[in-house]
Amino acid sequence: MKTLLLWDIDGTLIDSGGAGERALRVALEREFGIVDTLAWLDWAGRTDLWIARAILRHHGLSEDDTTATRYLDGYVAAVSEEMANPRARILPGVERILAHVATHPGMAQGLLTGNLERGAKIKLGHFDLWRYFAFGAFADDHESRNELGPHALRRAAAHHRIPFAPDRTFVIGDTPHDIACGRAIGARTLAVATGKYSVDALKPFHATFVLPDLQDFDAVMHLLESQ
User: Which CATH architecture does the domain made up of 3-16+88-224 adopt?
Assistant: First the structure.
């Protein structure tokens, strides 16, 4: 049976150089005339839909689907603009692992991200990484990250025409929400301290493995191939 890797994006595969945060601010001003630094909001590991509704609620705006969609459409347009910044980068070790897994007969990989699918494609496409992912679960599927796992497993099975057991699945991310999302489907979890959280900050959330980053190719693959 194949091992399935389900990847988070921001802080795990890439550092957008703050593109997402700036896009949220730009869209808020363009669509609703509101200027806000958003410094009050802790959104690490949340879905785009959760974030949009939290911001709308904070400013006394409607959280209905129409208003949230308006905000998120503006956000996606702004992300496309904001990705062209000198701080945006692929995180160390990522591309080698993705390329290796893409040709590994015993492994498959997809996305499990809080991004909208459109936003994910823009961010990863900027670095030519979108080509590694034929399926995934996104904020389009549900506002709560813990509800995304079943969508990812179902799409993985449909794409590869084989079932994937949760205990042969790894959810890889950089926040406690990624760990919780993996545990919600009985998957193993690999937490990486390449985002907001340090190794010490991630350890209390009991991921299967915690690493400082993905630079040590042999060490990472040893963990992912472990049974």
Answer: 3-Layer(aba) Sandwich (3.40)
